Amino acid sequence: MSEKMKQIEAWLRKQDGRFAYIADPTNVFYLTHFKCDPHERFLGLFLFPEDEPFLICPELEVGQAQASDFGHEVIGYRDDQDPWTFVNKALDRRHADSTKVFIEPTTLPYQKALALKSIDEKVTFGSIEDYLSDMRNIKDAHELAAMKKAGEIADYAVKLGIDAIKKGRTEAAIVAEIEHELAKQGYSQMAFDTMVLTGENTANPHGYPGTHQIHEGDFVLFDLGVVIDGYCSDITRTVCFKHATDEQHKIYETTLQANLEAIKAARKGLRIGDLDGVARKVIADAGYGQYFTHRLGHGLGLGEHEQPSMSAANDKTLTTGMVFTIEPGIYVPGVGGVRIEDDVYLTENGPETLTHFPKELQIID
């Protein structure tokens, strides 16, 4: 049994729980290393304080489940069978000393919650989501190695994008070239939709790449990430094509200073909202405070956006083992925008960046 599943079992004992039902495929992967997209089909990992866990999945996925790190009973069902019949039989073979069942409330459909309730009308529900989120916040050596590799490939992807810049080329064409070149080398899964923005479109923090063409004097912004063994990277770099105005230089240098100072300030025990404030003060002092319109960053791992939210309102503190993004930005309508984003792993001794593509302003010829 994996250490992560053992940790859940110990938590269930403390909570006097009957069992935990994990339905989110990402959390199932986190605990078992079994990757499955069940679509509309039933997927469930059932963990107990004392009894052996079991996993139920579509029959077509059983082979992969048995080959995963799970190592316990795997139950498959055909599309013409009711999976709850198998759930009930498996639960009947296990102890029922408690009525408290832990679920993921924000991802578990109401219909499935009702089905659990039908097993025993005395069942009460608790949430395991916060505990799982806290577990996923802290990366072990395997997870960190995957994220370092994902960061390395993200660095390479930015280089591919910059090398593809040409006058008149569209944002969408550069996106296609980046992803095509990565796929040729075996990196076919992006962490999210690749973003390449140019000109005034860079003033949209979450703009959409399209038919905008690159012109001289444009900012060109790259925001992308890749997935390695399930774990994501997320990097943003901004360059200028041919030349940059004094204002563009100021916007860029201010954003870079905010990025560097926030990374330097990250340490164990620091209030997350205060870290956001470090970057926000740099940008406000330069006169661009109103143009920094989003939080400093977000947690990163199996999902491209995880806890913690690196916002001014977050009173939680940084913990050793966390991976999060630092991504200040300035977005001026009619001029353009700059964002500089790095993935940061927090060690006992301070921050370690997982993305390393150069951050000084590059003027692309």
Short description, anyone?
It comes from Sporolactobacillus terrae. The chain has 365 residues and is of the alpha+beta class.
What report would you give on this structure?
The protein folds into two domains: 134 residues, Creatine Amidinohydrolase, Chain A, domain 1, CATH 3.40.350.10; 227 residues, Creatinase/methionine aminopeptidase superfamily (Creatine Amidinohydrolase, Alpha-Beta Complex). It contains ten helices and 19 strands. The protein is an alpha+beta fold. The mean pLDDT is 96. The strands form six sheets. It has a six-stranded mixed β-sheet. Helix 7 crosses helix 8 and helix 9 runs antiparallel to helix 10. Strand 12 and strand 13 form a beta hairpin. 35% of the residues lie in helices and 22% in strands.
Topology:
Elements: H1 3-15, E1 19-22, H2 25-32, E2 44-47, E3 54-58, H3 62-67, E4 73-77, H4 83-92, E5 100-103, H5 110-119, E6 124-127, H6 129-137, H7 141-163, H8 171-184, E7 195-198, E8 219-224, E9 227-228, E10 231-232, E11 235-241, H9 246-265, H10 272-285, E12 297-299, E13 306-310, E14 323-326, E15 329-332, E16 336-339, E17 342-347, E18 350-353, E19 363-364
Parallel strand pairs: 1-5, 3-4, 5-6, 11-19
Antiparallel strand pairs: 1-2, 2-3, 7-8, 8-11, 9-10, 12-13, 14-17, 15-16, 17-18
